[in-house]
Amino acid sequence: MHPIKPQLDGQSVAENKDPNGVFLFQEMIKVAQAKGAGFVDYMWEKPGSTEPQPKISYVQLLKEWGWIVGSGIYVDDVLEEVGEINNSIILGLLVALAIAFGIGYSMSKLLTKPINNLQLAAKRVAMGDVDFNLEITTGDEFGDLQKSFWEMICNIKEKAEVADKIALGDMNVEIKLHSEKDVLSKSMQKLKDTLKDLVDELNLLTQAAREGKLTARGNYQKYEGGFREIVAGMNATLDEVLTPINEGSLVLAKMASGDLSIRMEGVYKGDHKIMLNSINQLGESLSSVLTEVRQAVQATASASSQISSSTE
């Protein structure tokens, strides 16, 4: 039975062919007998159309009855349905893309601002500027990153404050060790200890000088680099101070013992040169006075001798 052309019912259709010369019913028999079932392409009149349209039918052999049954569909109907499906898919994709773009844009705004803030903060820290606050904007992994970066900034601020106090001479400032790997805190503690020890060493030298212990010297060998140079320089300064004093003391002692010919011979500058000139001038003055005294004594002795001779 044919739903579209009932006039074909009961008629032989073996010789029916489409406009392309395809014996469609013979092809259906061949496919059914050869494969048991299959598809056949051909041209067929379509209701509402003036010309035959491409059509595809599926046929199957029912062996127990010797029948061949089939059903077909026009290709343009399939293409139209596929087109509608494609349009629906495309529309769905466009909607999905729009939603994804909106979500992506919102997410990028949420992420870009804190990333930019963190980048600016990193640049300021790299330039040595830690005098600012870092806002924690999220509570996720990125927020944890912001917290860690802020803790680093706080630690740097703390070290800067400690360094300022040490620079002002506060050797009792506390340096917090945040972990066993806190290399910066360990280095600052070592620096503070070295500076404190250096100050103590210089104070001992100063106290010894006040007490007149001018032979006291600092132990420069326990220091390194510039610290060693400071203590060695202090020792050299004391040597420079003590040398003219020792020579002056020696010259004065010999003058006191009667050697008025001795003089200071060192080459000194500043106040030391003034001291040298003063001691040497003292020697000259004492020698001159002594000469005058001797001459007076000799004159007195000569006069006494003449008086004694005249009285005899």
Question: Tags for this entry?
Answer:
three-stranded antiparallel β-sheet, 62% helix, 3 strands, 312 residues, mainly alpha, Beta-Lactamase
The profile of the biggest β sheet is: 3 strands, antiparallel
The number of distinct helices, counting runs of at least 4 residues, comes to: 6
Order of adjacent strands in the largest pleated sheet = 1-2-3
Number of strands: 3
Any overview of this molecule?
The chain has helices at residues 24-35, 75-126, 141-167, 183-210, 225-256, 270-311, and strands at residues 37-44, 53-62, 67-74. It is built from six helices and three strands. The chain has 312 residues and is mainly alpha-helical. α5 packs parallel to α6. A three-stranded antiparallel β-sheet has the order 1-2-3.
Q: What's a quick, concise take on this entry?
A:
By secondary structure, the protein is mainly alpha-helical. The protein is 62% helix and 8% strand.
